[in-house]
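Hi support team,

I submitted a single chain yesterday and got back a structure, but I'm not sure I'm reading the token output correctly. Could someone confirm the output below corresponds to the sequence I sent? I've pasted both exactly as they appear in my results page.

Thanks,
R.
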Amino acid sequence: MSLAAKFKKLNRIWLASIAFFTVTGILLLLFLPLTGFPPHLGFLGVVSLISAYSLFNRRVWAPWLVFILLITNTVFSLFTFYLVGFSNILIALTMLTFAGLTWAFTLPLLLKKKN
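Hi R., thanks for writing in. Yes, this is the structure output for that exact sequence:
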């Protein structure tokens, strides 16, 4: 099956979630050298890319991986927000936005009924 045919089969929610997880994974891996190579950023980046792949190919384990990523991204962003507080407004707002977008792109996937 060609790539264009796979994209036509996916609905907008799946495409938006695939794009979100892909961009998130790439950004987390790009920021890895800038932050001193913390292992949790690398882990979240790799798991985000694996989630995007599993959603794109409609793997059976995709919802489980997306759920695990929902929990870990939420804990990571809110814990970072708690540590930074409002001493750095840019990081605080970024972490709150990241947590909100993670929930916004994940919940429709997990709550949608299978056809």
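A quick pointer for reading it: The chain has five helices and no strands. Let us know if anything else looks off.

Best,
Support desk
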